[in-house]
Structures are given as C-alpha cells and as structure tokens.
TrEMBL record, chain A:
Family annotation (CDD domains): TM_PBP2 (cd06261)
Gene Ontology CC: ATP-binding cassette (ABC) transporter complex
GO biological-process terms attached to the record: amino acid transport
Source organism: Pseudaminobacter soli
Superkingdom per UniProt: Bacteria
Domain ABC transmembrane type-1: 15-207
Cell compartment(s), UniProt: Cell inner membrane; Cell membrane
Matches recorded under PANTHER family: GLUTAMINE TRANSPORT SYSTEM PERMEASE PROTEIN GLNP, MEMBRANE COMPONENT OF AMINO ACID ABC TRANSPORTER
Keyword annotations: Amino-acid transport, Cell membrane, Membrane, Transmembrane, Transmembrane helix, Transport
InterPro entries in alphabetical order: AA_ABC_transptr_permease_3TM, ArtM/GltK/GlnP/TcyL/YhdX-like, MetI-like, MetI-like_sf
Protein name: Putative glutamine transport system permease protein GlnP
Topology of this chain in the membrane: Multi-pass membrane protein
Molecular functions per Gene Ontology: transmembrane transporter activity
Family classification: Belongs to the binding-protein-dependent transport system permease family. HisMQ subfamily.
Automatic annotation (TrEMBL), chain B:
Organism, scientific name: Pseudaminobacter soli (ex Li et al. 2025)
Similarity comment: Belongs to the ABC transporter superfamily.
Record's bilayer topology term: Peripheral membrane protein
Database matches in SUPFAM superfamilies: P-loop containing nucleoside triphosphate hydrolases
One MF term in the entry's GO annotations: ABC-type amino acid transporter activity
Annotated GO CC locations: plasma membrane
Keyword Membrane in annotation: yes
Ranges of residues in domain ABC transporter: 2-236
Signal peptide annotation: none
Protein name listed in UniProt: Peptide ABC transporter ATP-binding protein
Pfam families: ABC_tran
Subcellular location: Cell membrane
Length: 222, 240
C-alpha cells in the first residue's frame, strides 16, 4: 500500500497523458472514420480505392509495428524532426498513428451503419428534392448513428487500451510511468495492479456513459 | 404536364421498359394497371429520376428529366412521390417529417413550414399527431402523412406507387379518400394501383401495361367494359 501512495503522483501524470491521448484519438478516429466511410461509399472510384487501401493497410499490420515505423522509422529517412520539432514530432506522430489505426476500424463501423439504413429512407429524401449531402446529413446519418453507438463505444474502449502501446515508442503514458516506478521500487505486483484498476475505471465509466446515452436516444427517438 | 417518348429501361441484360410513350395533361388523373413485373413501378420511378432511363425522353413539370443538364433535385421538388412502404423518416416526428423538406430544401423559415404542415395535417385528417413518431401510427395514417410530406413541397404532379398495397384492408379507404380529394382539387396525378374501384371512380384515363409496354389505354368506362386486347381482357377477368 505504502509503495502505491508514494508513487501515485508519478502514475497520475501518466494517467493524465493516457486520457489526453485517448480523447484526441477517439475524436480523430471518428472524424477519419466518417470521411473514409463516405469515401468508400462514393460514386467516384479513385476515392473508393484510396479509402479501401487505407483501411486494409492499417487493419492488416500490428499497431505496434505502425507506431515503430512512423514514430521511430520515418525520422531515419525524412527530416520530420526539423519540420515539426524534435519534441513535437513523436507526440504528433504517435497520436496520428493511433488515430489512423483506430479510424480504419471505425470506417467499417460507420460504413455498415450507413448501409444498414433502409434504402426507402434515402429514396424518400431524394423524392422531396434533397441532394446527396442533405440526404446524408438529415436522414441517413442520424438513423445510422444510433445503431453505431454500441460498436463505436467498443472501439473507444479498445482505443483507450491501445494507448498502452505508446509506451514502447517513448510516450510517457500510464504503462511507461509504471515501468519507471517498478524499475526503482521492484513493486511489480502493486503497480501493475494499480495500473489495471485505473484502466478499468476509465473504460467502465465510458461504458456507463454510453448506456446512458443509448437509453436517452431510445426514449424519445424510436 | 408529362411527356414521355420511347422510354427504355434495362437492368443489365434485363429490359424492363421496352419503349413507353405517353402524355399526361395538367389536372389529369392517370391510373396505371397491369400484372406484377410489367414495369409499372419502374415507369413511375423513372418519372422522378429514382431510376435513370436507359434511353428515351421524359419531360415533366416543364423540365426535361432526361437532359443531363437538368438539376434533378430542383425537378423533384415539383414532382411529389408516395411509396408503397410509406418510407416516413423514422427518426423524425410527424410534424418534422413534413417540414424537413420545406425547411432544408426550400429554406422556408420554421414557423412558416410548421404552419403549412399543420394545414396539410388537417387536410389528411391527422391533427393531433404532430409530436408522434411514425412507428406510433397505423399504416393508413403513415401513408396519409407521406402524402402530406410530398404535398408540403408544393408539387405540380403527384406520383403514387401502389400506395395502398401494403395496407390492411380496412385502412385502404382512408388513403383513397385523401387521394380522391386531391384529384377533385385538380392535382395532376399518376397512380400505379390495383384498386380498380378507384381507377373507375377517380381516373380520367387508365393505362394497361404488360411486359414493359403500354398495351392499351383509354377512359376507365371504355377500358373496363370493352377492352380491345386479349391480354387486357384476361388480366381484367382475373382482377375484377
């Protein structure tokens, strides 16, 4: 217990970074996923090809390898550290790589959600003169969004857990701080236990929030 | 109001419409009948561009639908459509279902759109359902809302694609009643239906389609009592 209290401040600094990366990645993955999903459903073939290639590449390679490749590998051939700054490049690259990886899965969630909306809804929207954008914005996406909530929350939980893979590329999040504390104290049982509990609290509150959200949408929008 | 010349429509190798030519006058009510698979619905869906004609020419509400330069979204504002499955927007209330077109497409202010919607709800006999969701209404009520939704755009022509086919028998009457009132007001209408009573009573002209072609057309009294073609006779014998 003693060792936990003593090292809690250091661990909490890591936790704060974990939360920050999670929030950024969850927001970006939805934005990226929405854009890529719309591209995959586009009538314009090159847009479909680009989005499909993106999804396949990020789904078919491990996140850890992607992180090593982009955060540590790219600076070896490109002067990215000069472009973005020595301090900023790893931070930006790590956040973006994580978001792109999760966004690949979100693309498929959103695409499935859009395709799941009855074709008659789209036709009815077109029949009152709505263009493609208006049909998507006012009719299809609001209906698709509701059924996308459970899989999106799943993906958000996965994203929070995946931030732990940022430790090996030098981002001082929860796992990284934990390893430092353990190297000094040898208290691996207590510290890993503490870290597991902190992840659990984060993700459990997320799923509580989502069931609240789902219940609310269920009540007044059938 | 509608002019169709040599309309062809194929899905892959399957030719559904094999050269349709017809003409609909302003304020005319044309009822399209025929066996299933004859291309009636496809023909109707071509008239507002939900299906793209393979060849031929369609003029409707003063615009040439088959001209690639025509703004299809603009055109559809003048051509109302009512579907067999109603297709009300499930996530919107009845009032919102009717106002969303005027508000988002025609950019009419909310208060004005609401006023129009309430008038139309009164017209289709559904005052008091403004705040309900489509799932809470019966099929007949939903179809009447769908008619109000189409009317809210102020169309010049109304297309009906088997509007009563998905309804329980006791709800057919209330929908036909609303359609009849529209016809009496002078709305130009093209109605695909199996309701021969409606065709006889409200239709100015009946068009009989079979296998992608118009086989016969004429005033309902003549077509029903004295069909010229054998195919028409056998179809009417089965359905009347």
């Amino acid at each position: 217990m003693e060792v936990i209290w003593q090292n809690l401040p250091v661990i909490l600094v890591g936790l704060r970074l974990t939360i920050q990366y999670s929030i950024v990645a969850i927001i970006l993955m939805v934005v990226i996923g929405l854009i890529a999903a719309l591209m995959r459903l586009s009538k314009f073939a090159p847009l479909r090809w680009i989005a499909t290639a993106y999804v396949e590449i990020f789904r078919s390679t491990p996140l850890l390898v992607q992180l090593f490749f982009i955060v540590l590998g790219l600076p070896a051939i490109l002067p990215v550290n000069e472009w973005f700054g020595q301090l900023w490049y790893p931070i930006l690259a790590a956040a973006l790589t994580l978001s792109l990886n999760e966004g690949a899965y979100v693309t498929e969630i959103i695409r499935a959600g859009i395709l799941g909306v009855d074709r008659g809804q789209k036709e009815a929207a077109q029949s009152i003169g709505m263009n493609g954008f208006q049909t998507m914005r006012y009719i299809v996406l609001p209906q698709a969004f509701k059924r996308m909530i459970p899989p999106l929350v799943n993906q958000a939980a996965q994203t929070i857990k995946d931030t732990s893979l940022l430790a090996p590329v030098g981002i001082a999040e929860l796992v990284y701080k934990g390893e430092i504390v353990i190297a000094e104290t040898f208290a691996s049982f207590a510290i890993w236990g503490l870290i597991a509990v902190l992840y659990f609290i984060l993700i459990f509150s997320l799923s509580k929030f989502s069931s609240y959200l789902e219940r609310r949408l269920q009540v007044d929008k059938r | 109001m509608i002019n169709v010349r040599d309309l062809h429509k194929s899905f892959g190798d399957n030719e559904i419409l094999k050269g349709i030519s017809t003409h609909v006058e302003e304020k005319e009510v044309v009822v399209v009948i025929g066996p299933s698979g004859s291309g009636k619905s496809t023909f109707l869906r071509c008239l507002n561009g939900l299906e793209t004609a393979t060849s031929g020419e369609i003029e409707i509400a003063g615009m040439t639908l088959t001209d690639p330069k025509t703004n299809i979204h603009k055109l559809r504002q003048h051509v109302g459509m009512v579907f067999q499955q109603f297709n009300l927007f499930k996530h919107l209330t009845i009032l919102e279902n009717i106002t969303i077109g005027p508000r988002k497409v025609k950019k009419i202010p909310a208060a004005e759109a609401n006023r129009i919607a309430r008038e139309l709800l009164a017209k289709v006999g559904l005052v008091g359902k403004e705040a309900n969701y489509p799932d809470e209404l019966s099929g007949g009520q939903q179809q009447r809302v769908a008619i109000a939704r189409a009317l809210a755009m102020g169309p010049n022509v109304m297309l009906f694609d088997e509007p009563t086919s998905a309804l329980d028998p006791e709800m057919v009457g209330e929908v036909l009643q609303v359609m009849k009132a529209l016809a009496v007001e002078g709305m130009t209408m093209v109605v695909v239906t199996h309701e021969m009573g409606f065709a006889r009573e409200v239709g100015h002209r009946v068009v009989f389609m079979d296998d992608g072609l118009i086989l016969e057309e004429g005033p309902p009294s003549e077509l029903f009592s004295n069909p010229q073609r054998n195919r028409t006779k056998s179809f009417l014998a089965k359905i009347l």
